[in-house]
Amino acid sequence: MKKHNFSAGPSILPKSVIEQSARGVLEINNSNLSLLEISHRSKDFIEIMDKARTLALDLLNLQNKGYKALFLQGGASMQFLMTAYNLLENKAGYINTGEWSTKAIKEAKNFGEVIEIASSIDKNFNYIPKKYELVEDLDYLHITTNNTIFGTQFHNFPDTESNLICDMSSDIFSRDIDFSNFSLIYAGAQKNMGPAGTTLVIIKEDILGKVSRVIPSMLDYKVHIDKESMFNTPPVFAVYTSMLTLEWLKNNGGIKSIEYKNIQKAKLLYDEIDSNELFVGFANKEDRSFMNVTFNLKDENHKEQFDKLCLEANISGVNGHRSVGGYRASIYNALDISSVKVLIEVMNELKRKI
Ligand SMILES: *Cc1c(COP(=O)(O)O)cnc(C)c1O
């Protein structure tokens, strides 16, 4: 029976994409060969890589604006250090909005001065800081646009002259914003784009080449750009499946259309959290994430009963992260609104039973 998959990551992908991807593993392009056993230098794979890179820039409306798209390895966690390695010469600013930002800050400190411009750690990261003074002459300012664990999201971006760099792992391709405000965007594929194993990096080329240190080839964005994201063997399965998801998104009306659906889903669920007296939302209302909805039971004694109802309704992956507790419903692009309605129905059923 169909599962309602609210997993935070790796997470739900469109069913049609999984099916197409599975067919590609069996045979790619009527070649009698699996995607997994052809050369990454073959015409079949080069086409896939080119298409994935083009679709990414197209969907973000960044074609012909000086940006390049790369599919790299090492996860978003590798980007915590690669961004600093390639771009931090003197000092960089970071806004600390959760565990992932904290990890990015730790890595950057290996390469230069790191200024924590603002932090929401005082309230266990349940909000996005808004009042802070920006520092001049930063090599860049780094933010995490959506905080997967805590369920907060930037709805306005810092007004800065510095290069804005962001970890967009859990909300890339989910909303229609001006992506040209960012000089570099990175996102692990496994939240909203594809399977684990590749990380999309969108980079404005002219920000590179400004640091004096020697950069090892594998960590050098310029090398990956020059080699068209094929410096070494790319993760072919992850790139192929990501390409299929991007194609699915484009064929379904692109970002504007998915944003509309994402807003509807989030609104329904937050309305239920606010109106059902058994539950309370975790994140500050104005900073609520449209991708990861964090909430708690007011009375922990109802946990067993709620978990049982979720299980019976085929709801999967709603347990909160250990640092927040409670529940987290991740409602990424591929999750249909009907699954959100099932969760809401279960929340209502709990209310009726108590
Ligand atoms: C999941 C996640 C990461 C970590 O990604 P990996 O690919 O596992 O390194 C980093 N940042 C954010 C915002 C995430 O959601």
Mean pLDDT: 97
Instruction: Please name the fourth-level CATH homologous superfamily of the largest domain.
Output: Type I PLP-dependent aspartate aminotransferase-like (Major domain)
Secondary structure tally, helices:
9
Report the major sheet. 7 strands, mixed
Helix content: 25-40%
H/E order of the elements? EHHEHEHEEEEEEEHHHEEHEEH
Number of E strands: 14
User: Which distinct ligands sit in these coordinates?
Assistant: pyridoxal-5'-phosphate
Our Rg estimate from Cα atoms comes to: 21 Å
What would the principal axes of the Cα set say about the shape?
globular
Spatial strand sequence of the major β-sheet? 2-10-9-8-5-3-4
- Given as residue ranges, the uncertain stretches (5+ residues, pLDDT < 50) are none
CATH architecture of the largest domain: 3-Layer(aba) Sandwich
CATH class descriptor name of the largest domain: Alpha Beta
- Multimer state: single chain
- Report the portion of residues in β strands: 15-25%
Q: What name does the CATH topology of the largest domain carry?
A: Aspartate Aminotransferase, domain 2
